[in-house]
Every structure is written in C-alpha cells, then in structure tokens.
C-alpha cells in the first residue's frame, strides 16, 4: 500500500514576528461572529497532520492533548519537524497575546495527532489510527472532538481509510479535508485525492484574496466549499510565522469555522446537532462565487451572512412600514 502524503504546498515566506488577524480569517468573516460564538470556546478540533510546535506562543495554550502515530519518537512526542501541521493549527485556533496571529476560532482547543513524519509522508495505517483516536478521544473534563481537520491526501481509495472516516462522521464529527493541489485550472476536468473525495467529508477547495479559484485547486463533483488558500499567514515552527499556499491552508479555515458555527447553532437549537445538521448550518453561511459547482461547491465561507441578511430585512421592514 502506497504512503499517504501531505498535499504539496508552497512556502511563500517565513517571518520572525507577526501582529495581525490574518486576511483569510477576516475574509470568512470570523471576527464578525466572535462575540456571538464565544470564539469557539468549548470545541476541540483534531489536527491530523505533521504534529505541532508545542512551544509556539500562539498555540501552546490551545493544545489540550496529542498523540504521535509515526515512527519518529514516542507516542507523546507530537512536535512538528515539518512546519505544515503548525501552520494548519494556527489558522484554525491560534490565540495572539501582545503580538502574534489570531486563528478562526481562538478559544477552541486543539488535539494534535501526528500521522506524517518530517518529510510529510506516512503509512495509511497511521492515518487510520489517528482518525480512530480522534473519534474515541475524551478530554479530562469529558471533552470530545467536534471537528477533524485533514490537510493530507493520497491517490488510493483505501477501504480501511473510508471506514475510519465514516466512523468519525457516524459519531457526529464533521471531517474536513483538503481537495488537493493537482488542479489544472479547468473545472470540467476532475482531480481526486483521498480522503477529500469521499462524499461524506467536507472537501475544501482554495481561493485567493480576489475570490478567484486558485489555479492549483482540485476540481471534482464532491467539492463542498472553498476558503482562502493563497499566501496564508499563520504560525510556523521555531516560534516563527509563514505564508503558505495550498488547499491545505484553506481546510483549517473551515474546521475553525465549524467551531464557531457549533456554538451559534447549538445555542439557537438548544441541543447538540448531528454531523449532517452541522454541515447544513455551515453551508447556510456560504456565498456562491459564480464558478461551476465542481470548482466551488456551495461557495466561500461567509460566517456573518445570516446576520447581514437579518439586518437588511430589518432595514427593509422599517423603510416600508
């Protein structure tokens, strides 16, 4: 069985310091719903990747637990000797102090599951074990994983991988996966990477800050949603920051968005929502961009759009009373 790999990504630049709410976080309107969603407090996002820089000032307080399934070190060594996992984790849930960057859900917690080594590759079994671990994990106060984020992929549809993904979803956990970066800039041709191409997962394509589909973003009939994935600023190894590009970078925007949506919707419904209900609530907060569905799915995440509609209707009703 072939190895699973990080979906190829591009390192645009590395910086020593950063003070900002990154443009991608702003673009999906996360800050507009932070107050309403309590910044994702109470949700745990499982980052299944290359590990995480556990000493990064913007991440160290976000990490609730972790596990290493690779051959690099023992099971408690889930540090990141690649950079990819740290970057993904920061987009989902970094918390800035006096300086640093802020992720989509800055009060959510992170479960770091290392399934890829420093070269960005790993056995399918490591990933399967990692998904099952996230599904079964319980925190010190009974916390459970509310979203799984996977910015990895392979060309093979492996039945055991599908079963692990399906089991997580059956347990009420949305599984968010990168679409892949083998795109040819033509929406009519399909490019697939697994587990992203499974119907049950939330498959994420990438756009740039001009709301254009990234030329590298895979297109296929299972794309669900798009998010910023070009020159994304986030946390990086050695307590640094970096701009990276790829559908890998779009994916944690959606995992973090789910933590915010969970708090908003479950307060409104006054109960825990199922995976399909959470997906529906996420899709309600998207805006089409005018591309074929094979490229953009339901469109780009726009977390405040329902509130904007509500304000618009209130204004409309006031004017016409």
Automatic annotation (TrEMBL):
This is S8 family peptidase. It comes from the Bacteria. Belongs to the peptidase S8 family. The active site is at residues 49, 84, 248. InterPro entries: Peptidase_S8/S53_dom (IPR000209), Peptidase_S8/S53_dom_sf (IPR036852), Peptidase_S8/S53_subtilisin (IPR051048), Peptidase_S8_Asp-AS (IPR023827), Peptidase_S8_His-AS (IPR022398), Peptidase_S8_Ser-AS (IPR023828), Peptidase_S8_subtilisin-rel (IPR015500), Subtilisin_Carlsberg-like (IPR034202). SUPFAM superfamilies: Subtilisin-like. Residues 40-286 form the Peptidase S8/S53 domain. It comes from Lentibacillus salinarum.
């Amino acid at each position: 069985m072939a190895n699973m790999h990080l979906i190829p990504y591009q390192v645009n630049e590395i910086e020593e310091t950063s003070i900002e709410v990154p443009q991608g976080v702003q673009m999906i309107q996360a800050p507009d719903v932070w107050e309403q969603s309590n910044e994702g407090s109470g949700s745990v996002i499982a980052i299944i990747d290359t590990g995480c820089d556990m000493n990064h000032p913007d991440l160290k307080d976000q990490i609730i637990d972790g596990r290493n399934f690779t051959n690099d070190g023992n099971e408690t060594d889930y540090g990141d000797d690649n950079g990819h996992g740290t970057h993904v984790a920061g987009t989902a849930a970094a918390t800035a102090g006096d300086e640093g960057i802020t992720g989509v859900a800055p009060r959510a917690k992170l479960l770091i599951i290392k399934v890829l080594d420093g070269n960005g590759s790993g056995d399918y079994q490591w990933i399967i074990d990692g998904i099952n671990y996230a599904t079964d994990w319980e925190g010190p106060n009974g916390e459970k994983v509310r979203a799984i984020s996977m910015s990895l992929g392979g060309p093979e549809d492996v039945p055991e991988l599908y079963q692990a993904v399906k089991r997580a979803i059956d347990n009420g956990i949305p599984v968010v996966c990168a679409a892949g970066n083998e795109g040819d800039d033509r929406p009519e041709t399909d490019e697939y990477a697994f587990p992203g191409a499974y119907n049950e997962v939330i498959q994420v394509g990438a756009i740039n800050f001009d709301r254009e589909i990234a030329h590298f973003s895979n297109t296929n009939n299972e794309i669900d949603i798009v998010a910023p994935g070009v020159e994304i600023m986030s946390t990086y190894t050695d307590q640094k920051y970096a701009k990276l590009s790829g559908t890998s970078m779009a994916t944690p925007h959606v995992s973090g968005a789910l933590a915010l949506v969970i708090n908003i919707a479950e307060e409104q419904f006054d109960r825990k929502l199922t995976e399909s209900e959470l997906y529906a609530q996420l899709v309600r907060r998207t805006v089409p961009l005018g591309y074929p569905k094979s490229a953009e799915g339901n469109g780009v995440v726009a977390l405040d759009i329902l509130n904007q509609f509500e304000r618009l209707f209130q204004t409309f009703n006031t004017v016409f009373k």
